[in-house]
Amino acid sequence: MINKLEKISIWFCRALAGIAGVALTAMVLLACANMVFRATWVPVKGTFELMGFFGAVTAGFSLAFSQFYRSHIAVGLFYSKFPKPIQKFLDVVTGLVSCVFFALCAIETTKWGMFLFDLGEMSETLGIPFYPFVFAVAFGCAVMAFILLLDLVRTISGNEPLKPAELGSK
Question: How far is 96 from 151, CA to CA, in rounded Å?
Fold first, then answer.
């Protein structure tokens, strides 16, 4: 069962990372276009808003990929000196706290998105609704909580989370 969930999560992580990559590329292109047009003619209208929207998508959708592939920074100066049972306990506690945190982030961000939807809040310059981007961040947090839950289940069951090299072959 856990292997099927991991395969599904790999697909979600890669899809979200692809969308985050497109958003990041759009940010770079937009920033460059705005600099060129500002120097030669008229700046791109709504650049500030679009950079914020693309930045939200990039940040929200890259969280789970980073966690799944262990590409984040981990500080374990004293961690390796603890006995294995203490390390496992610390892994369970930090995994549980992290999972609950991101689940709560997803719930609260969804509530905020619903509030913005009900309010009809739009960006000032371009008139783009805010709520789809808020929901995107909420979805990214929910997928992050799911990945952390998978890590937690693997840790409790005594299975090590898969290494990035093992994930590439699946």
Answer: 9
